[in-house]
Structure formats: C-alpha cells, structure tokens
Design a protein that fits this description.
Order of helices and strands: HEHEEEHEHEHEHHEHEEEEH
Bound molecules: iron/sulfur cluster
Strand content: 15-25%
Distance between the termini: 41 Å
Mean pLDDT: 95
Oligomer: single chain
Low-confidence stretches: none
Radius of gyration: 23 Å
Number of helices: 9
Helix content: 25-40%
Length: 330
C-alpha cells in the first residue's frame, strides 16, 4: 500500500466529521484500489471515483441494494431486446420502433451465448422485448432455450399469431413462460389513438388466442396525460379477464424514443434493470436507445457488467442520501 496515499487518506478522513465527505487525490487505478481497501478496512465509504480524486464519506451507510426487494435488485432480471422492428409505430414508443426501424436482431446463437452467462451471473428471470419479438419467425427457438433455464416473459402486441407463427406459438411450453400483452385501454378509442387504427381489436383477439391456448398472460398498459378515466375501465377489463394482481401492469409514458413528453429518466433516478440489445448493455429497457443510459458496448463478461451496474446504483443512492442530509442552505 502506498505510504503517501495512506497518509493522505488518514489526514483527510480524520479531519472530516462523521457523515460528511472529503476529496482525496489519486493517481490512477492502483491508487483507487489501494484507497478502496483502506476505506473498507477503516469503516468508511467511497462515494464517487473521479479521474484524479475519490470522494470519501466518513462512516458506513447501509447497502442500498439490501433496501430493495430481492426481485427488484439489479441483476435479478435480465432484459433482452431480440429486435427493434415492429408492425406498429406507437407515438410514445420508448425505443422508436416501427416497420422501418433498423432491425438490430440478436441471433439464436448469440442469444444462447447470453443464456450461458446469465445463469452463472445470478440472473433469476428473463424478459424478452423489442420491437415486436414475434416478427422473428424463429423467436420460438429463443423462447425454448430461455424457458429451459429461467422463468421467461416475452412482451408482445399479440398481433402476429396467424399461420406458421400461430403453429409455433402453440408448440411452445406453457410452464415458465408468460406472454405480456400491451393493451392501453378497455375500448378502442385511446389505444388506437396512440397505436394505430384497428390495433385494439387485434390486441384483444391476441389476448383471447393466448388464453384459449392455455398461456399465462400479463396485460400491460402505458398511459399518457390523455388517459382520463381509462385506468378505472381497464381495471374492469382486467377483472373480466380474471387477471391476478401480478398479471396487471399500468405504467406512465416515459420521455424516451418517440415520446416527446412524459416521465424524465436518468441513471441517478431509475432503479436499473440490466438490459441487452444488439448494440450493448443498457441501464434499463425503457431507455435502450438513449446514449446517456448505455452501460457498455459489449455484453460479456455479463457478471462483471452486472456488478458495475450494482456499484453505480449504490453510488447514486448513497450520494443522494448524503446530499439530502448534508446540504443545509442556512
Ligand atoms: S410500443 Fe411496442 S408495439 Fe408500439 S411501436 Fe413500440 S415496440 Fe411496437
């Protein structure tokens, strides 16, 4: 351990009141690692690593990851964008999918390689999304691989189940697979306003098909400021479909992709759900084309990437907590 660095750490931290922070200059990754060991051994906390310094909190905070329910901790779920093209072009689509969007498909071989790392990395649930995943005729091959190793949900607008695609859907296992179907309202007006004429009737037909074939479904609505009383009507429809609580999702529009209004997201404000696309790793599936939300250009090693996301999440939460408790204006 560098003697000079250790002295600097002792001097800086001992002159800092408990619960407040100090900056210590460092010179490269070796210094950061040395400081990390010292901070760990002395019961303090590194808040942020800058290019030439680290910010240390005097004292130790509870691990923010432990405060989350286990199934909400980053690394529990893995999201995978199988593709980005879609038969629809919803005006709020968070990844701006459409029939003309660049496809960016993850091949069956690459998908299998991801699964090989996902299980040892501690992933407990898989979520496949797009674009419209069922536009891929061979989606069933990916779903079969996924369900064989982990509980799997696939998000869909439920409009592709005819002919060969219907045959392939029917041949899929029911155990361990959930079809999460998008439906924004209990009647056509609101749904079709954002998703296109006729899309409500086709989504309802898809829901009936999935239920008739014995699949477990979840219905997910995305609501904007024009939703009015539609949430109450949706609850009525959910009841009619006999959906349990965990089969109902209602969320707000995020200001991402094609949406020019909605909830603003950032890495500091959003609990991460590690997400892979053909272009790399993202903080959260709702922001998988936002450059500020890109974590890495490469998927592997997946365990390291998850660890890095967990570490950054910890830093954001701890920094926010410290700021919240140490920023008196008078
Ligand atoms: S919101 Fe879903 S259905 Fe609509 S364009 Fe995007 S991916 Fe397609």
């Amino acid at each position: 351990m560098s003697f000079e660095l250790t002295l600097r750490l002792i001097e800086a931290v001992s002159a800092t009141a408990a619960g407040t922070t100090t900056l210590v200059t460092v010179d490269g990754p070796d210094d950061v690692e040395t400081a990390r060991r010292w901070v760990e051994a002395t019961g303090n906390t590194i808040l942020t690593v800058h290019a030439d310094s680290i910010e240390i909190l005097r004292g130790r905070l509870a691990d923010p990851l432990e405060a989350l329910p286990p199934d909400r901790r980053p690394g529990y779920r893995l999201w995978i964008y199988t593709n980005f093209h879609c038969n629809l072009a919803c005006d709020y689509c968070c990844v701006a999918s459409s029939p003309t969007a660049e496809r960016r498909i993850i091949s069956v071989e690459d998908f299998a390689a991801i699964l090989d790392e996902a299980v040892p990395a501690g992933i407990r649930e898989l979520y496949l999304t797009g674009g419209e995943p069922f536009l891929l005729l061979d989606l069933d091959e990916r779903l079969r691989l996924a369900v064989a190793v982990l509980p799997t949900t696939v998000l869909t607008n439920a409009m592709q189940w005819q002919g060969e695609r219907l045959r392939r859907l029917d041949a899929l296992p029911r155990d361990g697979l959930t079809l999460q179907i998008s439906l924004d309202s209990a009647t056509a007006d609101l749904h079709d306003r954002h998703r296109g004429d006729g899309s409500f009737a086709r989504a309802m037909k898809g829901i009936r098909t999935a239920l008739d074939l014995g699949f477990r479904i979840r219905v997910a609505a995305t609501l904007g400021p024009d939703a009015g009383a539609s949430e109450n009507e949706l609850v009525g429809l959910f009841d009619e479909l006999s959906l349990d609580e965990d089969q109902r999702v209602v969320r707000r529009i995020a200001r991402q992709g094609a949406a020019n209004a909605g909830l603003t997201m950032s890495r500091a404000s959003l609990i991460p759900e590690v997400c892979l696309s053909a272009e790399g790793v993202w903080w959260h599936p709702v922001a998988a084309i936002d450059p500020a939300m890109k974590v890495s250009d490469t998927w592997f090693p997946l365990a390291k990437t998850i660890e890095a996301v967990q570490g950054e999440y910890r830093s954001h939460r701890i920094a926010n907590d410290v700021l919240a408790s140490t920023f008196p204006c008078a």
